[in-house]
Design goal:
heterodimer; A: 213 residues; mainly alpha; 8 helices; elongated; B: 394 residues; alpha/beta; six-stranded mixed beta sheet; four-stranded antiparallel beta sheet
């Protein structure tokens, strides 16, 4: 069933699409992180606005991806921007929620000590709050990344989609091997991202595993 | 602690000048509110703010590093109004220790201790030297503890690191908010004693908050008793407050055993010792007998050649001829030295079921006698401020 000669002849395509898949994912997660990060820093002291913003991101999150693309294409056409608007849109809910939860998880006594010793607001955010929020922020990035890797497939419908395009081509040409390759590589990419980010999260928060003895 | 003592900058006075803090416009009576607070802590002294919960003691403390801003009034450090200081700059010049310690979990002990030096822009070498010096100063080992995370330390060790971190930039003033409240009683007592030894060498001006009157009496050169509503009920030395409570509230707050607490503040050396009638082994017994008959206290204290006590000989047991021998001595009394607190001395007398204790010097030679009656009378006497025994003793 698997035709190795097809895989061999499609290797350049598969490689390109794998990289494209990664690029779409990275831009989406990074863009989502910047947007939700700025949003959270600006609004976190105003609970009502936090409610509104997370509510809005939650609504975006529930829109079916096909519907969202169909809605965006007339506005921004079949472009990279359209694909990324959709992908970033889906990361915002996850990332915002985890950023807020991470900041809320910072021990109050550490904040009081920081204030009492003369940290300014910005320095406290970067040197105390964000490092201590990292475990939950990293968990959010991990979920957002794995989710995005799956969602990228859908953007194949507007001419992007990375490995999704490999699968789509497989369908169009009745080529089971390409469908399988697209499927297996996407799952592998998702697993690798999950494991890799899990490892990275632990590596940059050595203190969270430190216990007495 | 045998640790080296860090060089120390001069301390500064801290003065409250009609400081009031109101929450909302409901006026006084709100927990944490402070009402027209005025007092001055001289440089190098420990002032303990003590009172029931809601009396405004923590609010008062936090107004000194401006975590809370007063509604009216001024706070002066070294004569300078802190309202005019840049707030982060002010806080970096004040050591701050809180009950939950508030170490940064993501930083090692060394990084935690270096916090304020880092904020002040000290270079890495100077920070590193200071960190090791302070970790040693609070009784920990830099080689063992410096690179650990707070979660790897015991509660008592974390509290020590909290004190080291507060001392890091050698601030003239320290604020301590129930610093030993979260550790068990045995560790607390050890930390208190270490702190007093440290303070004897560093002589910082310290504001210390507690709800525990015993801790206040033990730690404070001065005690500010506060009552609900944020009013200063009394301000004075521990002995003044125990001897002459200014109100029923203070009397109830310090407790019915305040006489006994005062005894813990004074030492045997502050009593007028009663001379002992002594005789050496080998002395002529007839001569000794004549001396003891003349004394209202009917016991002769037998001592050795270096004047060290051996035991008592009752008036009637002294033979009319021959020389005194060690075998004649029967009972013995507890040996006290000048540094024994009166509370401990009384406990030793009660324990030994005797009325009289023998006070000896560092070499064990007899200096005189104290009686249980004299000790209890001392606990009942009126406090006279500046009578010498006070304030210097803890």
């Amino acid at each position: 069933m698997i035709r190795w000669d097809v895989i061999q002849s499609s290797l350049p395509l598969i490689g390109t699409k794998l990289l494209e898949h990664l690029a779409l994912t990275l831009v989406a997660v990074f863009g989502g992180l910047v947007i939700s990060g700025v949003a959270v820093v600006l609004i976190r002291d105003r609970p009502r606005i936090v409610g509104l913003v997370t509510g809005f991101f939650g609504v975006v999150y529930t829109i079916p991806s096909l519907a969202l693309l169909a809605f965006l294409v007339p506005l921004t056409h079949l472009t990279f921007v359209t694909a990324e608007i959709a992908l970033i849109g889906y990361t915002l809910f996850i990332l915002t929620r985890n950023l807020l939860a991470g900041l809320a998880s910072v021990p109050r006594d550490a904040l009081e000590a920081a204030d009492g010793m003369g940290y300014g607001r910005t320095r406290r955010l970067w040197q105390v709050e964000l490092p201590l929020a990292l475990p939950l922020i990293m968990a959010g990035i991990r979920i957002a990344t794995v989710t995005t890797i799956g969602l990228v497939m859908v953007t194949a419908l507007i001419g992007f989609g990375g490995l999704g395009q490999v699968m789509l081509r497989g369908y169009n040409f009745r080529n089971d091997t390409l469908v399988l390759v697209g499927f297996v590589l996407t799952v592998a990419l998702g697993l690798a991202a999950d494991l890799g980010l899990g490892w990275l999260g632990r590596a940059i928060t050595p203190w969270s595993r430190a216990k007495a003895g | 602690m045998t640790a080296p003592v860090a060089r120390s900058s001069p301390a500064a006075t801290v003065a409250f000048d009609h400081v009031t803090k109101q929450y909302g416009n409901t006026g006084p009576g709100i927990p944490g509110a402070v009402q027209d607070l005025s007092f001055e802590v001289p440089a190098g002294k420990v002032c303990v703010l003590v009172g029931p919960s809601g009396c405004g003691k923590t609010t008062s403390l936090k107004m000194v590093n401006r975590l809370i801003e007063p509604t009216s009034g001024r706070i002066l450090i070294g004569g300078e109004d802190i309202a005019g200081r840049e707030v982060t700059d002010l806080r970096r010049s004040i050591g701050y220790v809180i009950q939950q310690v508030g170490l940064f979990p993501h930083q090692t002990i060394g990084e935690n201790v270096a916090t304020v030096p880092r904020l002040l822009g000290w270079d890495a070498t100077r920070r590193r030297e200071r960190v090791d010096e302070l970790i040693t100063l609070v009784g920990l080992d830099p080689a063992v503890h410096r690179d650990r995370f707070p979660a790897q330390l015991s509660g008592g060790e974390r509290q020590r690191v909290g004190v080291a971190r507060a001392l890091a930039a050698d601030p003239p003033v320290m604020l301590m908010d129930e610093p030993f409240g979260a550790v068990d009683p045995i560790v607390r007592e050890r930390l208190q004693n270490e702190f007093l030894r440290l303070q004897a060498a560093l002589a910082k001006t310290i504001l210390f908050v507690t709800h525990d009157i015993d801790e206040a009496i033990k730690m404070g050169d001065l005690v500010a008793v506060m009552e609900v509503g944020g009013k200063l009920a009394q301000f004075g030395t521990p002995d003044e407050i125990l001897a002459n409570p200014a109100s029923d509230f203070v009397a109830r707050f310090v407790g019915a055993d305040r006489g006994l607490k005062r005894l813990a503040l004074s030492r045997v050396e502050s009593l007028d010792l009663r001379p002992a009638v002594t005789a050496r082994v080998g002395d002529d017994s007839d001569e000794a007998r004549r001396r003891i008959v003349a004394d209202p206290f009917e016991f002769l204290l037998l001592v050795d050649a270096s004047n060290r006590p051996i035991g008592w000989i009752g008036q009637r047991q002294v033979p009319s001829s021959g020389v005194l021998t060690e075998a004649m001595a029967s009972a013995m009394s507890p040996l006290l030295d000048g540094k024994t607190t009166l509370k401990d001395a009384l406990a030793m007398l009660i324990d030994a079921e005797v009325q009289v204790g023998i006070v000896v010097d560092g070499k064990g030679a007899v200096q005189g006698l104290v009686t249980a009656d004299e000790i209890t009378a001392y606990g009942r006497r009126d406090g006279i401020s500046g009578s010498g025994a006070e304030a210097t003793s803890r």
